[in-house]
Design a protein that fits this description.
With 84 residues, this protein is an all-alpha fold. The protein contains 4 helices and no strands. It has helices at 3-18, 31-35, 39-53, 68-83. The longest helix is centred in the first third of the chain and has 16 residues, at 3-18.
């Protein structure tokens, strides 16, 4: 899966499951503010990533994740590690 496919898949389930407007999803936009995430939403996000990509995220993975681009990069890194 290439980076563009990862981005499209993430954006797709964010629009569907978190009811965020696709126009609000920009690489430099703040992930938490744009999605309006609270602690329970993070759990839903982790479950969505696991079901869509087969990788697990833990709390420490979100340290330093501020933007959508940071999030895309995290998932790409996790997928590469899984494939290795």
């Amino acid at each position: 899966m290439n980076k563009q496919e990862i981005i499209e898949k993430i954006n797709g389930f964010l629009v569907d499951e978190f009811e965020v407007d696709s126009d609000d999803i920009e690489p430099g936009a703040n992930l938490k503010d744009t999605l309006g995430l609270d602690s329970l939403d993070y759990v839903d996000l982790v479950v969505s990533i696991e079901s869509n990509f087969g990788v697990k995220l833990v709390e420490v993975d979100f340290v330093g994740i501020a933007t959508f681009q940071n999030f895309y990069d995290l998932i790409e890194t996790k997928l590469k590690a899984k494939a290795a």
